[in-house]
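Human:
Take a look at this sequence-structure pair and walk me through the tokens.
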Amino acid sequence: MPLGLYIHVPFCRGKCPYCDFYSVIPSGGIIDEYTKCVCKQLDGYKGRLFDTVYFGGGTPSVIGADNISEIIESANIDSNAEITVECNPSDCGENGFDFDKAAIAGVNRISMGLQSAAESERKALGRRADMHDVENAVRRAQRAGIDNISLDIMLGIPGQSEETLKRSVDFCFSVGAKHISTYILKIEEGTYFDKVKDKLDLPDEDETADLYLRCAELIERGGMKQYEISNFAFPGFESRHNLKYWHCEEYIGAGPAAHSFVDGKRYYYERNLSEYLKNPEPVSDGSGGDFEEYAMLALRLTEGLQDIRVFERFGFHIPEKIFEKAKKYERNGLMTVDDGSVSLTTRGFLVSNAIIGDLLI
């Protein structure tokens, strides 16, 4: 079976106050050195075929289209592969990231960090680009033939209201986005927001839950369908790469902080660029893919845990106790249950951790 390929690009021009993803500010020839190291790592997988590729970070657009192209060329990628690059709009002006060159290399999907269409909220999140920059970046990608655009919206951010949220959703549709990812702000330990959290004007839990439900309503009203806790798309534009994660399929990760799941085993590279460049040896993270893990990931999807897929993969049916517990949540509007599947509703996604934990005990 073809694998997914994740490339972690550990570079950013600056650190957003809410972000705890691994990244450093590039200097000297470090980007070219990193690119050569990733290509060398991928040379070892020439016998494996990849049908999805995802450049995440960090900020992949920082390394430029030439380095993106070099990495793509070093891997054995299917001709019909989905190839996604995360981009920061501030890197994508007229003299910035070369979408034309990226498209020639095979990039056919762009994921861009909008976060909010309200300038005050963008400023609070430390975003450098304004809305003109975001729209210009989207249009440049589209002119290059990359029409599959995903935009991120963040929920529960300082100063956010239903009115500003609607403005963000409306912007996504106005520029022709095919996919929207929505993320509830989580204050991560060690970030700037963690240091100043008592001073932030954040919505409370109930207000944030209302924003999530309102966001889902607005996006679906625009014609997209929710297919995962945080993700919505027009039919046919779901992220094929991320679906590999949620279907517990196998993938290879390259770059510091990247994780892999291959041949039933999980491993990762440490969050240390200098060590990765000197000796890119992965760290074992045990085995993966058992029923509990599979079920936990499947229940992130609106399609839910399906009995036919469980039987095909494990040779047994969904345990009856899961159906029995799910029916309890169905009475409260948190789950949907039928003869062949159990799934969370949009409201159920808000308390998914507790429900999934209970189902799998």
Notes: The chain has two domains: 3-245, 291-359. The chain has a mean pLDDT of 95. The two ends are 32 Å apart (CA to CA). The first strand starts at residue 3 and ends at 9.
